[in-house]
Protein backbone atom coordinates (compact mmCIF):
# COMPACT_ATOMS: atom_id res chain seq x y z
CA UNK A 1 0.00 0.00 0.00
CA UNK A 2 1.34 3.44 -0.98
CA UNK A 3 1.52 5.86 1.94
CA UNK A 4 -0.73 8.92 1.63
CA UNK A 5 1.67 10.96 3.82
CA UNK A 6 5.46 10.52 3.70
CA UNK A 7 7.71 12.63 5.93
CA UNK A 8 11.45 12.22 5.49
CA UNK A 9 13.98 13.95 7.74
CA UNK A 10 11.72 16.93 8.46
CA UNK A 11 13.57 19.65 10.37
CA UNK A 12 12.55 23.22 11.15
CA UNK A 13 14.87 25.82 12.68
CA UNK A 14 13.90 29.00 14.49
CA UNK A 15 16.02 31.59 16.27
CA UNK A 16 15.43 33.02 19.72
CA UNK A 17 16.41 36.68 19.90
CA UNK A 18 16.96 37.94 23.43
CA UNK A 19 16.37 41.64 23.96
CA UNK A 20 15.42 43.80 26.97
CA UNK A 21 14.75 40.74 29.09
CA UNK A 22 12.12 39.33 26.69
CA UNK A 23 12.35 36.54 24.12
CA UNK A 24 10.83 36.14 20.69
CA UNK A 25 11.00 33.16 18.33
CA UNK A 26 11.50 34.03 14.65
CA UNK A 27 12.35 31.97 11.60
CA UNK A 28 15.74 32.29 9.96
CA UNK A 29 14.26 33.94 6.87
CA UNK A 30 12.22 36.44 8.86
CA UNK A 31 15.25 37.21 11.02
CA UNK A 32 17.37 38.04 7.99
CA UNK A 33 14.63 40.15 6.41
CA UNK A 34 13.84 42.04 9.58
CA UNK A 35 17.52 42.71 10.22
CA UNK A 36 17.93 44.15 6.72
CA UNK A 37 14.93 46.47 7.11
CA UNK A 38 16.06 47.69 10.51
CA UNK A 39 19.59 48.33 9.25
CA UNK A 40 18.39 50.26 6.19
CA UNK A 41 15.61 52.33 7.80
CA UNK A 42 16.16 52.66 11.51
CA UNK A 43 19.91 52.50 12.12
CA UNK A 44 20.72 56.06 10.87
CA UNK A 45 18.62 57.39 13.79
CA UNK A 46 19.80 54.95 16.41
CA UNK A 47 23.02 54.57 18.30
CA UNK A 48 24.90 51.44 17.42
CA UNK A 49 24.92 48.86 20.18
CA UNK A 50 25.83 45.22 20.69
CA UNK A 51 24.18 42.73 18.38
CA UNK A 52 21.27 40.89 20.00
CA UNK A 53 22.05 37.40 21.21
CA UNK A 54 20.57 34.71 18.95
CA UNK A 55 19.95 31.11 20.01
CA UNK A 56 18.95 28.27 17.68
CA UNK A 57 15.86 26.18 18.28
CA UNK A 58 15.11 23.11 16.18
CA UNK A 59 11.34 22.87 16.51
CA UNK A 60 11.52 19.73 14.35
CA UNK A 61 14.65 17.59 14.24
CA UNK A 62 14.93 14.81 11.63
CA UNK A 63 11.32 13.58 11.89
CA UNK A 64 10.39 10.70 9.57
CA UNK A 65 7.20 8.62 9.36
CA UNK A 66 4.55 7.36 6.93
CA UNK A 67 0.75 7.30 7.18
CA UNK A 68 -1.42 4.90 5.19
CA UNK A 69 -4.82 5.84 3.70
CA UNK A 70 -7.64 5.68 6.25
CA UNK A 71 -5.48 5.85 9.36
CA UNK A 72 -6.40 8.19 12.23
CA UNK A 73 -3.11 9.20 13.83
CA UNK A 74 -2.80 10.91 17.22
CA UNK A 75 -0.01 13.43 17.75
CA UNK A 76 1.00 14.00 21.38
CA UNK A 77 3.73 15.81 23.27
CA UNK A 78 4.27 18.65 25.70
CA UNK A 79 3.96 22.34 24.77
CA UNK A 80 6.88 23.22 22.53
CA UNK A 81 7.38 19.60 21.45
CA UNK A 82 6.82 20.52 17.77
CA UNK A 83 3.28 19.22 17.15
CA UNK A 84 1.84 22.38 15.58
CA UNK A 85 5.06 23.03 13.65
CA UNK A 86 4.80 19.54 12.13
CA UNK A 87 1.18 20.14 11.11
CA UNK A 88 2.09 23.52 9.61
CA UNK A 89 4.88 21.94 7.56
CA UNK A 90 2.61 19.13 6.34
CA UNK A 91 -0.07 21.72 5.47
CA UNK A 92 2.50 23.74 3.44
CA UNK A 93 1.94 26.78 5.67
CA UNK A 94 5.66 26.91 6.36
CA UNK A 95 8.66 25.35 4.60
CA UNK A 96 10.94 22.88 6.39
CA UNK A 97 14.57 23.88 6.90
CA UNK A 98 15.57 20.38 5.87
CA UNK A 99 13.75 17.27 4.73
CA UNK A 100 10.68 16.64 2.61
CA UNK A 101 6.97 15.97 3.11
CA UNK A 102 4.78 14.42 0.41
CA UNK A 103 0.95 14.44 0.58
CA UNK A 104 -0.76 12.25 -2.01
CA UNK A 105 -4.26 13.70 -2.05
CA UNK A 106 -6.38 16.74 -1.21
CA UNK A 107 -5.63 18.07 2.28
CA UNK A 108 -7.82 20.14 4.58
CA UNK A 109 -6.11 21.77 7.58
CA UNK A 110 -8.16 22.68 10.64
CA UNK A 111 -5.34 24.43 12.49
CA UNK A 112 -7.27 27.65 13.14
CA UNK A 113 -10.92 26.90 12.43
CA UNK A 114 -11.95 30.57 12.37
CA UNK A 115 -9.27 31.71 9.92
CA UNK A 116 -10.52 32.84 6.50
CA UNK A 117 -13.90 34.19 7.62
CA UNK A 118 -15.06 37.77 6.98
CA UNK A 119 -17.14 39.34 9.78
CA UNK A 120 -19.28 41.46 7.44
CA UNK A 121 -20.39 38.49 5.32
CA UNK A 122 -23.23 36.18 6.36
CA UNK A 123 -22.72 32.60 7.46
CA UNK A 124 -23.89 31.37 4.05
CA UNK A 125 -21.47 33.67 2.19
CA UNK A 126 -18.59 32.66 4.44
CA UNK A 127 -19.26 28.98 3.76
CA UNK A 128 -18.89 29.53 0.01
CA UNK A 129 -15.85 31.78 0.46
CA UNK A 130 -14.06 29.38 2.82
CA UNK A 131 -14.75 26.45 0.51
CA UNK A 132 -13.43 28.42 -2.47
CA UNK A 133 -10.20 29.09 -0.55
CA UNK A 134 -9.81 25.32 -0.24
CA UNK A 135 -10.41 24.87 -3.97
CA UNK A 136 -13.94 23.47 -3.70
CA UNK A 137 -16.40 23.95 -6.56
CA UNK A 138 -19.59 25.93 -5.92
CA UNK A 139 -21.74 22.99 -7.00
CA UNK A 140 -20.10 20.74 -4.41
CA UNK A 141 -20.68 23.30 -1.65
CA UNK A 142 -24.34 23.68 -2.60
CA UNK A 143 -24.73 19.89 -2.43
CA UNK A 144 -23.47 19.80 1.18
CA UNK A 145 -24.76 23.19 2.40
CA UNK A 146 -27.65 21.84 4.47
CA UNK A 147 -25.37 19.23 6.05
CA UNK A 148 -22.79 21.89 6.99
CA UNK A 149 -25.42 24.16 8.53
CA UNK A 150 -27.01 21.34 10.52
CA UNK A 151 -23.64 20.08 11.73
CA UNK A 152 -22.59 23.58 12.90
CA UNK A 153 -26.02 24.19 14.49
CA UNK A 154 -26.35 27.68 12.94
CA UNK A 155 -29.67 27.16 11.09
CA UNK A 156 -31.30 30.29 12.52
CA UNK A 157 -28.24 32.47 11.83
CA UNK A 158 -27.27 31.35 8.32
CA UNK A 159 -28.09 34.73 6.73
CA UNK A 160 -26.82 36.80 9.67
CA UNK A 161 -23.44 38.61 9.41
CA UNK A 162 -20.69 36.60 11.05
CA UNK A 163 -19.85 39.49 13.40
CA UNK A 164 -23.10 38.67 15.20
CA UNK A 165 -21.96 35.08 15.88
CA UNK A 166 -20.48 34.01 19.18
CA UNK A 167 -16.92 32.68 19.20
CA UNK A 168 -18.27 29.16 19.64
CA UNK A 169 -20.62 29.50 16.65
CA UNK A 170 -17.77 30.72 14.42
CA UNK A 171 -15.57 27.83 15.52
CA UNK A 172 -18.32 25.26 14.94
CA UNK A 173 -18.99 26.65 11.47
CA UNK A 174 -15.31 26.49 10.53
CA UNK A 175 -15.03 22.93 11.81
CA UNK A 176 -18.23 21.88 10.03
CA UNK A 177 -16.97 23.19 6.68
CA UNK A 178 -13.73 21.28 7.06
CA UNK A 179 -15.31 18.03 8.18
CA UNK A 180 -18.24 17.84 5.77
CA UNK A 181 -16.59 18.80 2.47
CA UNK A 182 -14.71 16.09 0.60
CA UNK A 183 -10.95 15.63 1.04
CA UNK A 184 -8.40 12.83 1.42
CA UNK A 185 -6.40 14.07 4.42
CA UNK A 186 -7.62 16.12 7.38
CA UNK A 187 -5.30 17.81 9.87
CA UNK A 188 -6.95 18.72 13.17
CA UNK A 189 -5.19 20.78 15.88
CA UNK A 190 -7.36 21.12 19.03
CA UNK A 191 -10.39 21.83 16.82
CA UNK A 192 -12.58 19.39 18.76
CA UNK A 193 -12.22 21.60 21.85
CA UNK A 194 -14.94 23.89 20.45
CA UNK A 195 -18.62 23.54 21.26
CA UNK A 196 -20.37 21.68 24.05
CA UNK A 197 -20.02 17.97 24.91
CA UNK A 198 -22.81 17.01 22.49
CA UNK A 199 -21.13 18.79 19.57
CA UNK A 200 -17.72 17.30 20.39
CA UNK A 201 -19.26 13.83 20.49
CA UNK A 202 -20.82 14.35 17.04
CA UNK A 203 -17.51 15.65 15.67
CA UNK A 204 -15.65 12.62 17.04
CA UNK A 205 -18.24 10.31 15.52
CA UNK A 206 -17.78 12.09 12.18
CA UNK A 207 -14.03 11.40 12.27
CA UNK A 208 -14.68 7.70 12.96
CA UNK A 209 -17.13 7.39 10.07
CA UNK A 210 -14.82 9.32 7.73
CA UNK A 211 -11.95 6.94 8.54
CA UNK A 212 -14.06 3.95 7.49
CA UNK A 213 -14.63 5.66 4.12
CA UNK A 214 -10.89 6.05 3.58
CA UNK A 215 -10.19 9.56 4.91
CA UNK A 216 -6.86 9.97 6.70
CA UNK A 217 -6.68 12.15 9.83
CA UNK A 218 -3.82 13.64 11.84
CA UNK A 219 -5.24 14.60 15.20
CA UNK A 220 -3.79 16.77 18.00
CA UNK A 221 -5.65 17.12 21.28
CA UNK A 222 -4.80 17.78 24.93
CA UNK A 223 -7.69 15.48 25.78
CA UNK A 224 -5.94 12.10 25.91
CA UNK A 225 -9.31 10.41 26.23
CA UNK A 226 -10.14 11.63 22.71
CA UNK A 227 -6.78 10.35 21.45
CA UNK A 228 -7.44 6.91 22.98
CA UNK A 229 -10.96 6.86 21.58
CA UNK A 230 -10.20 7.95 18.02
CA UNK A 231 -6.63 6.89 17.23
CA UNK A 232 -5.30 3.34 16.90
CA UNK A 233 -1.78 4.69 16.32
CA UNK A 234 -0.01 7.73 17.77
CA UNK A 235 3.23 9.66 17.41
CA UNK A 236 5.05 11.18 20.41
CA UNK A 237 7.19 14.28 19.89
CA UNK A 238 9.64 15.67 22.43
CA UNK A 239 11.78 18.76 21.77
CA UNK A 240 11.30 18.36 18.04
CA UNK A 241 12.25 14.68 17.88
CA UNK A 242 9.97 11.73 17.17
CA UNK A 243 10.52 9.53 20.25
CA UNK A 244 7.69 7.00 19.83
CA UNK A 245 5.51 5.70 17.00
CA UNK A 246 3.13 2.83 17.61
CA UNK A 247 -0.14 1.68 19.20
CA UNK A 248 -1.81 4.56 21.04
CA UNK A 249 -1.93 2.78 24.41
CA UNK A 250 1.84 2.20 24.37
CA UNK A 251 2.66 5.73 23.17
CA UNK A 252 0.44 7.41 25.76
CA UNK A 253 1.90 5.21 28.49
CA UNK A 254 5.35 6.46 27.53
CA UNK A 255 4.06 10.04 27.38
CA UNK A 256 2.46 9.77 30.81
CA UNK A 257 5.52 8.18 32.32
CA UNK A 258 6.54 11.70 32.13
CA UNK A 259 7.17 14.39 32.42
CA UNK A 260 10.10 13.39 30.29
CA UNK A 261 12.01 16.16 32.04
CA UNK A 262 10.56 15.69 35.50
CA UNK A 263 10.82 11.93 36.05
CA UNK A 264 9.26 12.04 39.52
CA UNK A 265 10.68 15.44 40.40
CA UNK A 266 8.70 17.86 42.56
CA UNK A 267 9.73 20.95 40.57
CA UNK A 268 9.63 21.82 36.89
CA UNK A 269 11.22 24.78 35.14
CA UNK A 270 9.55 25.56 31.82
CA UNK A 271 11.88 26.01 28.85
CA UNK A 272 12.13 29.26 26.83
CA UNK A 273 9.64 29.04 23.98
CA UNK A 274 7.60 26.37 25.77
CA UNK A 275 5.50 28.90 27.68
CA UNK A 276 4.99 32.66 27.61
CA UNK A 277 3.93 33.45 31.19
CA UNK A 278 4.41 30.23 33.16
CA UNK A 279 7.90 29.90 34.61
CA UNK A 280 7.97 27.18 37.31
CA UNK A 281 5.70 24.63 38.97
CA UNK A 282 6.31 22.95 42.32
CA UNK A 283 4.40 20.36 44.39
CA UNK A 284 4.55 20.55 48.20
CA UNK A 285 3.49 18.08 50.89
CA UNK A 286 3.71 18.02 54.69
CA UNK A 287 7.51 17.91 54.68
CA UNK A 288 8.19 20.24 51.78
CA UNK A 289 8.63 19.69 48.00
CA UNK A 290 7.77 16.10 47.06
CA UNK A 291 6.17 13.89 44.41
CA UNK A 292 4.84 11.32 46.92
CA UNK A 293 1.68 11.93 48.92
CA UNK A 294 -0.70 10.12 51.28
CA UNK A 295 -4.53 10.21 51.00
CA UNK A 296 -6.05 12.80 53.32
CA UNK A 297 -2.84 14.77 53.86
CA UNK A 298 -2.33 18.34 52.56
CA UNK A 299 -1.30 18.99 48.96
CA UNK A 300 -0.04 22.30 47.58
CA UNK A 301 1.11 23.54 44.19
CA UNK A 302 3.12 26.73 43.65
CA UNK A 303 3.14 28.41 40.24
CA UNK A 304 5.58 31.15 39.21
CA UNK A 305 3.95 33.46 36.64
CA UNK A 306 5.63 36.37 34.82
CA UNK A 307 4.47 39.46 32.92
CA UNK A 308 0.79 39.47 33.96
CA UNK A 309 0.62 42.85 35.71
CA UNK A 310 -2.62 44.62 34.85
CA UNK A 311 -4.24 41.53 33.30
CA UNK A 312 -8.01 41.55 33.78
CA UNK A 313 -9.91 38.53 35.12
CA UNK A 314 -6.83 36.31 34.85
CA UNK A 315 -6.89 33.11 36.87
CA UNK A 316 -4.54 30.21 37.58
CA UNK A 317 -5.73 26.61 37.53
CA UNK A 318 -4.31 23.26 38.50
CA UNK A 319 -5.60 20.11 36.81
CA UNK A 320 -5.08 16.64 38.30
CA UNK A 321 -5.44 13.66 35.95
CA UNK A 322 -5.25 9.91 36.52
CA UNK A 323 -2.72 7.51 35.04
CA UNK A 324 -4.74 7.31 31.79
CA UNK A 325 -4.60 11.08 31.29
CA UNK A 326 -8.27 11.64 32.17
CA UNK A 327 -8.79 14.84 34.22
CA UNK A 328 -10.26 14.18 37.67
CA UNK A 329 -10.72 17.76 38.85
CA UNK A 330 -9.66 21.35 38.21
CA UNK A 331 -9.06 23.89 41.00
CA UNK A 332 -9.30 27.54 39.91
CA UNK A 333 -7.93 30.60 41.71
CA UNK A 334 -11.10 32.49 40.76
CA UNK A 335 -13.03 30.17 43.08
CA UNK A 336 -11.33 31.91 46.02
CA UNK A 337 -11.47 35.46 44.58
CA UNK A 338 -7.72 35.78 43.87
CA UNK A 339 -6.89 38.50 41.29
CA UNK A 340 -3.60 37.71 39.51
CA UNK A 341 -3.46 41.02 37.66
CA UNK A 342 -3.48 43.14 40.84
CA UNK A 343 0.22 42.63 41.59
CA UNK A 344 3.05 45.14 41.19
CA UNK A 345 5.99 42.78 40.67
CA UNK A 346 6.95 41.36 37.28
CA UNK A 347 6.84 37.79 38.58
CA UNK A 348 4.26 36.52 41.04
CA UNK A 349 4.12 33.13 42.74
CA UNK A 350 0.61 31.83 43.44
CA UNK A 351 -0.14 28.84 45.62
CA UNK A 352 -3.06 26.39 45.58
CA UNK A 353 -3.65 24.56 48.86
CA UNK A 354 -5.81 21.47 49.30
CA UNK A 355 -6.39 20.75 52.97
CA UNK A 356 -6.87 17.03 52.25
CA UNK A 357 -5.72 15.29 49.09
CA UNK A 358 -8.90 13.54 47.83
CA UNK A 359 -7.12 10.78 45.88
CA UNK A 360 -6.82 7.04 46.38
CA UNK A 361 -3.41 5.37 45.89
CA UNK A 362 -2.12 5.35 42.33
CA UNK A 363 -0.24 7.40 39.73
CA UNK A 364 -1.36 10.92 38.76
CA UNK A 365 -0.23 13.97 36.81
CA UNK A 366 -0.46 17.67 37.63
CA UNK A 367 -1.18 20.19 34.88
CA UNK A 368 -1.28 23.98 35.09
CA UNK A 369 -3.31 26.57 33.18
CA UNK A 370 -3.78 30.32 32.91
CA UNK A 371 -7.28 31.35 31.88
CA UNK A 372 -9.63 34.27 31.52
CA UNK A 373 -13.25 33.49 32.26
CA UNK A 374 -14.02 30.20 30.52
CA UNK A 375 -11.24 30.81 27.99
CA UNK A 376 -7.68 29.48 27.95
CA UNK A 377 -4.58 31.70 27.80
CA UNK A 378 -1.83 29.15 28.37
CA UNK A 379 -1.56 25.52 29.42
CA UNK A 380 0.99 22.82 30.20
CA UNK A 381 -0.81 19.52 30.53
CA UNK A 382 0.63 16.67 32.66
CA UNK A 383 3.53 18.92 33.68
CA UNK A 384 4.55 16.81 36.71
CA UNK A 385 3.89 13.25 37.77
CA UNK A 386 3.24 12.20 41.36
CA UNK A 387 2.27 9.11 43.34
CA UNK A 388 -0.29 8.65 46.10
CA UNK A 389 0.77 5.98 48.59
CA UNK A 390 -1.21 3.74 50.92
CA UNK A 391 -3.04 5.71 53.58
CA UNK A 392 -5.80 5.60 56.18
CA UNK A 393 -7.79 8.83 55.72
CA UNK A 394 -10.78 7.49 57.70
CA UNK A 395 -8.50 6.57 60.67
CA UNK A 396 -10.12 3.15 61.14
CA UNK A 397 -7.01 1.05 60.68
CA UNK A 398 -7.96 0.02 57.12
CA UNK A 399 -5.67 1.65 54.57
CA UNK A 400 -6.45 2.24 50.94
CA UNK A 401 -4.36 -0.06 48.76
CA UNK A 402 -2.83 0.93 45.38
CA UNK A 403 -5.16 0.73 42.37
CA UNK A 404 -5.72 2.70 39.15
CA UNK A 405 -6.39 5.85 41.16
CA UNK A 406 -9.56 7.77 41.85
CA UNK A 407 -11.38 10.13 44.20
CA UNK A 408 -12.25 9.43 47.83
CA UNK A 409 -14.78 11.47 49.77
CA UNK A 410 -14.74 12.60 53.36
CA UNK A 411 -17.77 11.12 55.12
CA UNK A 412 -19.02 8.42 57.46
CA UNK A 413 -21.46 5.48 57.65
CA UNK A 414 -23.88 4.92 60.55
CA UNK A 415 -26.74 2.63 61.53
CA UNK A 416 -30.04 4.45 61.09
CA UNK A 417 -32.13 4.79 64.25
CA UNK A 418 -35.23 3.29 62.71
CA UNK A 419 -37.14 2.31 59.54
CA UNK A 420 -38.02 4.75 56.75
CA UNK A 421 -40.84 7.10 57.66
Structure overview:
- The protein has 421 residues and is an alpha+beta fold.
- The protein folds into two domains: 5-255, 3-Layer(aba) Sandwich (Rossmann fold); 267-388, Coagulation Factor XIII, Chain A, domain 1 (Distorted Sandwich), CATH 2.70.50.60.
- Helices cover 23% and strands 34% of the residues.
- It has helices at 28-42, 83-90, 123-133, 138-152, 167-180, 197-212, 224-230, 248-256; strands spanning 5-19, 22-27, 53-67, 72-76, 98-103, 107-110, 185-189, 216-220, 233-238, 241-247, 267-269, 278-285, 288-289, 292-293, 299-306, 314-322, 327-332, 347-354, 362-372, 375-388.
- The strands form four sheets. Strands 6-7-8-4-9-10 form a six-stranded mixed sheet, sandwiched between helices.
- A hairpin with a 2-residue loop joins strand 12 and strand 13 (288-289).
- It is globular.
- Residues 19-26 have low confidence and may be disordered.
Provide the descriptors you would attach to this structure in a database record.
Rossmann fold; 5-stranded antiparallel sheet; 2 domains; 6-stranded mixed sheet; alpha+beta; 421 residues; 23% helix; Coagulation Factor XIII, Chain A, domain 1; 8 helices
Write a concise synopsis of the structure shown.
This protein has 421 residues and is of the alpha+beta class.
Amino acid sequence: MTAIISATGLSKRYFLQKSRGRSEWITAGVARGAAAVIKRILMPWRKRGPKPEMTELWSLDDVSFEVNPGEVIGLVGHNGAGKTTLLRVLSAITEPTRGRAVIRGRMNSLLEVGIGFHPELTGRENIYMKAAIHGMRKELVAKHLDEIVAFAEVDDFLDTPLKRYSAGMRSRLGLAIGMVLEHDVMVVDEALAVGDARFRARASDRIRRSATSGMTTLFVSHDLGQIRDLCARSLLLDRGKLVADGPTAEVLDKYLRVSIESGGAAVREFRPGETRHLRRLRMIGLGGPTSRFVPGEPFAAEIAIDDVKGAVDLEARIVIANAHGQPLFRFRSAMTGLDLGARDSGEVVVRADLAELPLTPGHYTLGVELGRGRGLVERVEHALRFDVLEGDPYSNGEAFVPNDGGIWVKGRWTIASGPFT
